Amino acid sequence: MNLILPFDHRFFRARNGTIFSDKSYNYSFFKNRYLKVFDHISILSRVADVNSDEHPSEGTEGRGVSVIALSDWIGPVGYFRQRKRILEIALREAAKPSAVIMIGPGGIGALAYESLHAQGYPIALEVVSDPWEAFQPGAVGHLLRPILRRWLTNKLRRECLQACAVSYVTNELLQRRYPTAGFSVGVSDVVLSEDSFVCRSRVFSNATPKTIISVAVMTNGYKGHHVMVDAIRICKAMDVPLSLVMVGDGPLRCEIERRAEKEGVLDRIRFAGQLPAGAMIRAELDRADLFILPSLTEGMPRALLEAMARALPAVASRVGGVPEVIDSEFMVPPGNAEALATKLKCVLSDPAKMSEMSACNFRRARDFEDSKLSSKRQAFYRQVQAMTEQHSSLQQSPLLISHSDFACSP
Description:
Elements: E1 2-13, E2 19-20, H1 27-34, E3 40-49, E4 65-70, H2 76-81, H3 83-94, E5 98-103, H4 113-118, E6 123-127, H5 131-134, H6 145-162, E7 165-168, H7 173-177, E8 183-186, E9 210-215, H8 225-237, E10 242-247, H9 253-262, E11 269-273, H10 279-287, E12 290-293, H11 302-309, E13 314-317, E14 331-332, H12 337-348, H13 351-365, H14 370-395, E15 400-404
């Protein structure tokens, strides 16, 4: 059976025609996740052309995986200009004997939701983000943020209630906020293969200074980069010997750099830029002593779990699925730079505590090994496949699946 996957991620196309991702969405990702159940995957997504034949990772397309390229855009204006074409392609592909996983809330796949639901298609959801947190004050600067926050939240609640099956990336949080009466499963979307893990946990000494690290896109404010900069300023004033490595890039990078310069901490922060997923990011994690994630919102944070697999101690905001993976002792209120700085000072001055955190994080990360999560995902996809086949046999039309997976908005 074919799977049509509308996907809000922005892909790139080299001059030689190779389509690739600057994140981990390569051929192996889609093959290992979906082709164990479905025969073919058609990805409907934005594709931007680049003036080079080089690309930093494995291409996205391959046997059983193809990309249906939409023109490139950034922001809501381009999105709404593409509404008609997106809807036409989604409806055309859905008319084939295919399952359709729609990515949302909001985004490319959501455009076909109302039309197909009105035609009686059963709907399943895969929910990994919370729009109520994602559109909170300070996370998004859009003028319509308060309206979008309520609209997207109510929309997701309605979809979950209507769904015949829902997969959540958390074990409890998203299930409470967006309940369903249908079949449900809790399984993270992180991919931790065996090479994601170090051999053993770390043992720390009194050696100083310490290096802390964050891995997060600089697309909007919800990853808390401004909180990191302010916390470094406070730590500097308290004579805490540390430096910060920021891995990631995006439209806000210049603003973050200006803030660091204004606060007098540019000498304490290294901007590593966007790095290819895999070995290069793992190398940065291995050189660091502590991972921080002061986000305003999260589903089940993949970057945190990837750091835990490298046996890194971690301090994070008390948001999303974070309380399900690290102890409350090492969480801080979102948006509170003072609390973050105080926690950093406390943790970094206690090597025995850091060693204990390392062992605990490493042990908990093992619960998210891909070999353990893969069986849960496959069971969910097989359930979806069975519902698709049943609906097709009764109605002579495919199943629609709505999927809140990789992004909250285009």
